[in-house]
Amino acid sequence: MMRLYVSNKNESVPMFQSRFMEFFSHVHPATPLVLYLPAIAYFLYQALWQRGLSIPFVLALFAFGILIWTLLEYVIHRCVFHYEPKSRWGKFLHFMLHGVHHDYPNDASRLVMPPVVSIPLAVLFYLLITLTFGRVAPAIFAGLVFGYVCYDAIHYAVHHFAMKRGIWLRLKQYHLRHHYHDDHVGFGVSSPLWDYVFRTTRK
Fold this sequence. Notes:
Oligomer: single chain
Structural class: mainly alpha
Number of strands: 0
Radius of gyration: 18 Å
Shape: globular
Order of helices and strands: HHHHHHHH
Helix content: 55-70%
């Protein structure tokens, strides 16, 4: 049975000499909920009432959006966050993006992406989904954003909540293996689905 490490929410390290930059490197874990739940509601409204899509169709598109998010989560975590650069600047950027989380995994203020990064990315993905799916894009995008919010909530809970039984305990154990046993496997946080597809589950 693997050890479930005790959380220390005050575990942190300064990343910038500038107080201004340092301030924006810390994000309250509720920030994605505040920012994106209203956005999800708006895009569902747009799909149902402005685009006139049926409820079952919107639900199916919403689920498809969640599935897209789980793949994005896997690809970003594996190919971007765990890319190992050689240059000095590359290593610094990698540390800012994800290395700091592995060095200080229980830093509660660095478990979610800063809005200055997540909002431009959300706009980019919305444009891509709109260009790809056209009229049904709002329902798919709502599902993708919901998937992201769930990911952030689960990631925070895994590091700071007990999660003593059922699927929640399994998710906690699965992610903590990635941190404390082998960070070359277990890239899914909200779901291990794509780890099974691409054979990056625990060796």
